[in-house]
Specification:
This protein is about 70% helix and about 0% strand. With about 300 residues, it is mostly helical. Helix 8 packs antiparallel against helix 9. Bound molecules: geranylgeranyl diphosphate. Geranylgeranyl diphosphate binds next to helix 4, helix 8 and helix 9.
Length: about 300
């Protein structure tokens, strides 16, 4: 199966599983259920859940065991986008090709829909896959820990806090010093990298991977996450809002340091390609000859070409 067939097949399974995972009326008041659905079903590449399922494949596991983690991570990712778009944060009006949730449902409902998605994600992880097998329960608990850490203050929330603080004037009215290359890398590793890593690691754990395999997948996904961020910065400079489904050029306009700003476009493209080479080396060194994860990495990088 080539990559586009693989992506289409996995994306279709993920859409169906997300549909089942979303809370239904009337248990959940329609006003918030509809708001959650609006953002989850707005499209999106489903990169994180695909990585989760592909990692279960890479360790030779049963992909269906990783589907609850795949969906939980997509729910958390969607909550983060809703909250990131709020006026108090990035203040954006376009996401996934649609008006942002606070534009159509109001700020309060957008905050609640994000909160609801966050809570539903952990409920899903606790409930599924249903099993009383001690090994499966250990896998589930480990995955809950991995995802909570990646989504929380040591991960995504912490990265978002660093990003927000960088554009927030202090009491003296001055902005903090801009990130240097190391600061930029740390902020992105937390803000977007942590959840991408957790996607792959959760898939490998649910697929029953050995500790060595999980460690190799983690290192591989760290590189894919960095490549993703470099490409996202390139697209922010080069892309059109229509193609991106979100407002283009915002980071540059806000004076945020980006990879193209620090290194230039050509070097940024080369750096993204080098991430995939390092991901390849990591998998090779671990004796894991899974081409699919690398194909997904190249798919990430090709978006910037
Ligand atoms: C609000 C706690 C909190 C966190 C927000 C991830 C994040 C932290 C904000 C997103 C800001 C942003 C646009 C970052 C650039 C990288 C990124 C996460 C892009 C969106 O992810 P894609 O490209 O989106 O995977 P789709 O729509 O395809 O799922």
């Amino acid at each position: 199966m080539d990559l586009s067939e693989y992506l289409r097949a996995r994306q279709a399974e993920i859409e169906a599983a997300l549909e089942r995972a979303l809370p239904a009326h009337p248990t959940c008041p329609p006003v918030v259920a509809d708001a959650m659905r609006y953002s989850v079903t707005a499209g999106g590449k489903r990169l994180r859940p695909v990585l989760c399922l592909a990692s279960a494949d890479a360790v030779g596991g049963d992909r269906s065991l990783a589907m609850p983690a795949a969906c939980a991570i997509e729910l958390i990712h969607t909550y983060s986008l809703i909250h990131d778009d709020l006026p108090a944060m990035d203040d954006d009006t376009l996401r996934r090709g649609r008006p942002t949730l606070h534009v159509v449902a109001g700020e309060g409902m957008a905050i609640l829909a994000g909160d609801g998605l966050h809570a539903e994600a952990f409920g899903l992880l606790a409930r599924e896959p249903q099993s009383s097998d001690p090994d499966m329960m250990r896998r589930k608990l480990r995955v809950i820990d991995v995802i909570a850490t990646a989504a929380g203050p040591a991960g995504m929330v912490g990265g978002q806090a660093l990003d927000l603080a960088a554009v927030t004037p202090g009491r003296d009215g001055r902005l903090p010093a801009p990130f240097d290359a190391e600061g930029l890398r740390t902020m992105h590793a937390k803000k977007t990298g942590a959840l991408i890593r957790a996607s792959a690691v959760s898939g490998a754990i649910m697929g029953g991977g050995t500790d060595a395999a999980v460690t190799a997948i983690d290192a591989c996904a760290t590189e894919l996450g960095l490549a993703f961020q470099i490409v996202d910065d390139i697209l922010d400079v080069e892309g059109a809002s229509k193609d991106l489904g979100k407002t283009a050029g915002k980071d540059a306009a806000a004076g945020k340091p980006t990879y193209p700003a620090l290194y230039g476009l050509d070097t940024s493209r080369r750096m993204a390609r080098e991430c995939i080479e390092r991901a390849d080396a990591v998998l090779n060194a671990a004796g894991m000859r899974d081409a699919r994860l690398l194909e997904i990495g190249r798919w990430i990088v090709e978006r910037s070409n």
